[in-house]
Amino acid sequence: MSDIKSWTRADFLQLNVGKTEAQLLGSQECLHTSATDIIIIHGCTLHLTNMKALCHLDYTVRILLYSIIFLLSFFGNMMIIVVLILNKRLRTVTNSFLLSLALSDLMVAIFCMPFTLIPNLLGDFIFGETMCKVTAYFMGISVSVSTFSLVAIAIERYSAICNPLQSRAWQTRSHAYRVIAATWIISIIIMIPYPVYFLLVQFKKPDKSFGHMCRLALPSIQVQYVFLLIILFFLPGLVMIVAYGLISCELYRGIQFEVTQKKDRCSSGEDNDGCYIQAGKSGNAVEMSMLTPAGSAKLDRARSNASESKLVAKKRVIRMLIVIVVMFFICWMPIFSVNTWRAFDQLSAARRLSGAPISFIHLLSYTSACVNPIVYCFMNKRFRKALLGTCRGCLRPFPLFKETDEEAGVTGASLSNCYRIGLHRPFRRCVPDSNNSLRENRSPPLGFF
Fold this sequence. Notes:
By secondary structure, this protein is mainly alpha-helical. It has a single domain, classed as Rhopdopsin 7-helix transmembrane proteins, CATH 1.20.1070. Helices cover 67% and strands 11% of the residues. It has 16 helices and nine strands. The protein has helices spanning 9-13, 21-25, 48-86, 93-122, 128-162, 164-167, 173-190, 193-197, 221-268, 293-344, 346-353, 356-366, 368-378, 381-391, 405-411, 415-424; strands at 4-7, 38-41, 44-47, 198-204, 210-216, 275-279, 286-290, 427-432, 438-443. The strands form four sheets. The protein has a three-stranded mixed beta sheet. A two-stranded antiparallel sheet has the order 4-5. Strands 6-7 form a two-stranded antiparallel ribbon. Helix 4 (93-122) packs antiparallel against helix 5, helix 5 runs parallel beside helix 9 (221-268) and helix 10 packs antiparallel against helix 12 (356-366). The N and C termini lie far apart (78 Å). Residues 1-46, 271-289 and 397-449 have low confidence and may be disordered. InterPro entries: Cholcskin_rcpt, Gastrin_rcpt, GPCR_Rhodpsn, GPCR_Rhodpsn_7TM. GO terms for molecular function: gastrin receptor activity; neuropeptide receptor activity. This is Gastrin/cholecystokinin type B receptor. Residues 76-376 form the G-protein coupled receptors family 1 profile domain.
């Protein structure tokens, strides 16, 4: 007859000092229990045979998910770093921030993921006290730099799009390098308590052996976690919401303006006379060109296609900005909320979140390391061209060209450059002359690109 033990929840948690039911289900202890044992907790019967199967499934799922996110983060950010370094034409102000973001996300993949998953699976931090301090320090620095880089990108885009004339004076690569250096220095300073107060804490296992936990032992841990919650989540999130919200409003006004202009042209029958005044080849000479009906129709179609392309690009940028803000909160809100909860009620948080739940919450935050390269770089047409050229061994600099609205609108990584080109350099309109050849006629830009 099987051995049946009727325990309270507290008795069950006392199997190991400081460990919870979820931890036992997610650690090796549950794999060494007799398959005939049955535990009854508050009327709920747990067959340890089923617990063993759940352990294997839990291990497999966690290892698989962490491996996928690690590989995507590592190789994705490595490709971004290589492409931005080898292609001089991509060394813009925004791409400088993206390079810093890719480096910090690479650090997240290297220092956060393995040193979170392995101790969680083993129920023991096996890397020693020195690695406990070092990994905790680099974890904090990488997360901090990644967050500050996202804020810097948001502010740079807002300045370039909403205040282009004022931003030209300071939007230089040298200024970007100073901002990047400041983000790293600030991150290094605010994370100094980590190597000082992270300690390797010993605990006793059910088999009488000893394990170790890497824990933060600050005198005022609540103050530290609230401080990090404010400067690494609330303030960055607020800045990104405001900056991208204002950018979206500016682009939306541009969409409305172009739609109104299109309606006005259709209702007023603009260009019905087919006459254009153009600067001749000689200095003051002026020549008149009369459009044929066929030429006028071609011009209308070209103008309509260009307008539609700009509208689509701007709508795409707005959607992308919304995705950036939403992904930031999805990735980081759970872990910052949990850390704050643990700081003020450690026992309750440990009982409900230890083991698999906290492992998946950490994984969700690490997902940002593979999402950022996709959103900010791989969705940009110019970057994809540079990546293909690099992979083919074509390390020659790419020819300088203006991005089209569609290219710039995909991610906005080079949005500031396109915007300045569109604002300070008038668009060119092709007008057929009397010989049906294409000539250029300059007109003021209608959009924000």
